[in-house]
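Protein modeling request. Please complete all fields; requests missing the sequence field cannot be processed.
Requester role: graduate student
Desired output: 3D structure, token encoding
Chains: 1
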Amino acid sequence: MKFPRRRFLHLAAGVAALPAISRIASAQAYPNRLVRIVVPFPSGGQIDVIARLMARCLSERLGQQFIVDNRPGAGANIGTEAVVRAPADGQTLLLASATNAVNATLFDTLTFDFVRDLAPVASINRIPLVLQAHPSFVAKTVPELIAYGKGNPGKIDMATPTTGTGPFMAAELFKMMSGVDLVHVPYRGEAQMLTDLLGGHVQVAFGGISASIAHIRAGKLRALAVATTERLEALPDVPTVGDFVPGYEASGWSGIVAPKNTPIEIVDKLNREINGGLADPKIKASLSNLGAAVLAGSRAEFAKLIADETPKWGKVVRFAGLKPG
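Delivered output (325 residues):
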């Protein structure tokens, strides 16, 4: 039996459209079962709290349960690899962070490629960092710090939390871009670092603004500069490091990524719902209370952030000669 040409073309077009229709239907039904957001760190930390905030938000917006699955270990690589190996169906997601961008160079034996093997879904937040000093320290500004450091090499202690964290990398970036010889003193955590800074046992430090701002406002610490590209609303009179070291910027960040080849319709749906949640005043307030700034945007913008951050921190890792702890 011969089909008329017009009918044949209609049938062919219909068959070709089936995969697209199937994908759209799948995205419309998504999620139809529990979704896991893997956090590659222990529970209780800032990244974990942000993940739980977004899991609750997405559960409410999409009518399906999103839960946090903590899989710490190997500097965040165990949880990350679990998501890389997961089915690309949107049911397993990763709360990625700046640590993943650092690890891409810090670890030379990874079995996955962070940029190649994961699909950016949506950024969530940035975590502003501040360069601060004990009030007794001789340098009152960033230019004075640089001048004093160059005139007294190896005599300034620069404290941060442990190797590979955002503040640690911010300090190494400052050393690399300013050319100042500072003695980097990493602590196991930010609380211990602040205790020693407040006691005058170290002179300067990089840390998250949320942990330091009360001490800065009380005059117990002096904020020399913020590490963001623009001044912060919380510290409007404090300049940026970039005002004195052109091109400098350092901050923590986090966002949702999925296994590569996750259907684009599902990725777009998640991006819309995450951005919708980030526009909620309650979510904004919760992030602000954590010292985090909302970073909403398209998946393309998040992909660019990851693509920019990975080689940027790779240069710092190589400059500092960092090795996994």
